[in-house]
Amino acid sequence: MRDFIMCVLYLAAIGSVGFVIGRVVPKRLFRGDRFPFRSFPWEKEGKVYQALGIRRWKEKVPDMSQIFPSLMPSKRVPDAATPAQVERMVQETCVAEGTHCVLSLLGFGCVFILKGVWGWVVSILYLLGNLPYILIQRFNRPRLMRILQLMQAKRECS
Predict the structure, then answer these.
(1) If we measure between CA atoms, which residue out of 136, 105, 135 comes closest to residue 123?
(2) pLDDT digits (tens, 9 = 90+) for 131-151
(3) Could you report the per-residue pLDDT of 86-95, keeping only the tens digit for each?
(4) pTM for this one?
(5) What is the rounded distance in angstroms from the CA atom of residue 112 to the CA atom of residue 55?
(6) Contact of 130 with 153, CB cutoff 8 Å
């Protein structure tokens, strides 16, 4: 039981540190059109995730922008959004995806804390808990990038 509690504390610690790092890391370092964040051909610009019913369940998972609205920007595109706001939203999807990917990998540290099969079970469950958030970012980013491209094209024509 002690090892299980240590594993839970470890996961809470990496989640907290990941959240803080995700808030302070310079967003300009993240580009939605570059590896690993750009859409892969098999993703069909996010359409592959529609087969998973993502539109039905993505609004039902907990969202840090609802839990900490003063710390996290909203996930909704404002009606009168500027290209800079949409670009920031693209960057935020990259940060969120990167954070959840790193947390998923670090979660396997439970294998070393909680020996045996239960360490693997907890680690895999933690990975599965992060996976929906990764998929949501990969689904939303191509749409946001299309909006940004349209805004930039409109600005160039003006």
Answers:
(1) 105
(2) 999 999 999 999 999 999 999
(3) 999 999 999 9
(4) 0.89
(5) 37
(6) no
Closest alpha carbon to 134 in 67, 84, 61: 61
Structural domains in the chain (count): 1
Range of the domain at 143: 2-157
Please answer whether residues 37 and 31 qualify as being in contact, where contact means their C-beta atoms are separated by less than 8 angstroms.
yes
Task: For residue 95, give both structure tokens.
Answer: 């940060």
- The tokens describing 66, both together, are 């609802």
What's the 3-state SS for the chain? CHHHHHHHHHHHHHHHHHHHHHHHCCHHHCCCCCCCCCCCHHHHHHHHHHHHCHHHHCCCCCCHHHHCCCCCCCCCCCCCCCHHHHHHHHHHHHHHHHHHHHHHHHHHHHHHHCCCHHHHHHHHHHHHHHHHHHHHHHHHHHHHHHHHHHHHHHHHHC
Torsion of CA 101, 14, 124, 100, to 10 degrees: -20
| pLDDT (mean) for 69-89 | 81
